[in-house]
Amino acid sequence: MKDHDHHACCAHHASHHELAIEGLTVKYRSLMALDSVSFSTSCGNRVALIGPNGAGKSTLLKAIAGLVPQRAGTIRWRGAPVRKWFSEFAYLPQREDVDWSFPITLRGLVEMGRYPQTGWCGRFRAEDAAAVDRALDALDLTHLQDRQIRELSGGQQQRGFIARALAQEAHVLLLDEPFTGLDRNAARRLGDLLGRLSGEGRLILASHHDLANVPDLFDEVLLVNQRMIGFGPTATTLTPEAIERTFHQSNEPSAPVRPPANA
């Protein structure tokens, strides 16, 4: 990412856009989903969440989005509790968790991104319609806007959800397995799109399972299996040893690659 893009993002609010998570613990009744996870990252980065099934990747995304309660720890964005900034976060669930039979057009889906500004019963204004138009155009979806979402391809559906995030004017995209089920061309197009969005200064966190293409898609990786196994730049963090610890030594704590936020 170019320096001027990074500074443009951060200058928007005259402060550094940093996501800082410390000691995050989430339990589902007696099941420990996340155990004292700590890391920090900032605008302009693409972060892959890597770990086996049930490692807590989806839980981490949902906790950041405020969709599941945390047992302990803090989540801060731009120096304040994340709940103050929820309108700047967009969560995209796994495609298999979406009811694609729901009777809504692609444009209707993208319009939902404006609800944080208008409220669910608020009046849709000219600037809201313009934001939706810009989002559809940015993702080359304008010609599909009147189609029912069930009629779209997998790649088009994913781009539709990202268009909703753009219409929301979100700074942080939380993506749960966004590449799953996409063919090669759709996956390449989505990867290029995420690169462009991070280049514009957005922060992207995505759970991901294909280790082979992580270096091409992500700047940083968080290796997690309930506890954090490692976090840092992809080139130095995604090592065979760290992968082995993550996938085959469940819940074994390890020193992080770099100190957690404010350590």
Would you give an account of this structure?
By secondary structure, the chain is an alpha/beta fold. The chain has a domain of 175 residues: 3-Layer(aba) Sandwich (Rossmann fold), CATH 3.40.50.300. 33% of the residues lie in helices and 24% in strands. The strands form two sheets. Strands 6-7-8-3-9-10 form a six-stranded mixed beta sheet, with helices on both faces. A four-stranded antiparallel beta sheet has the order 2-1-4-5, covered by helices on one side. α5 packs antiparallel against α6 and α6 packs parallel to α7. The longest helix is centred in the last third of the chain and has 16 residues.
What is the topology?
Blueprint: H1 3-11, E1 18-28, E2 31-42, E3 46-50, H2 57-64, E4 72-77, E5 80-81, E6 89-92, H3 106-111, H4 115-118, H5 126-138, H6 154-168, E7 172-176, H7 184-199, E8 203-207, H8 214-217, E9 220-225, E10 227-233, H9 234-237, H10 240-248
Parallel strand pairs: 3-8, 3-9, 6-7, 7-8
Antiparallel strand pairs: 1-2, 1-4, 4-5, 9-10
Helix pairs in contact: 5-6, 6-7
What letter string, H or E per element, gives the SSE order? HEEEHEEEHHHHEHEHEEHH
Q: How many DSSP helices?
A: 10
The order of strands across the largest sheet is 6-7-8-3-9-10
Overall mean pLDDT score? 87
Shape: globular
Structural class: alpha/beta
User: Helical proportion?
Assistant: 25-40%
Q: Can you tell me the CATH architecture of the domain at 3-99 and 171-248?
A: 3-Layer(aba) Sandwich
Q: What is the number of strand segments? A: 10
Give the biggest beta sheet.
6 strands, mixed
Strand content: 15-25%
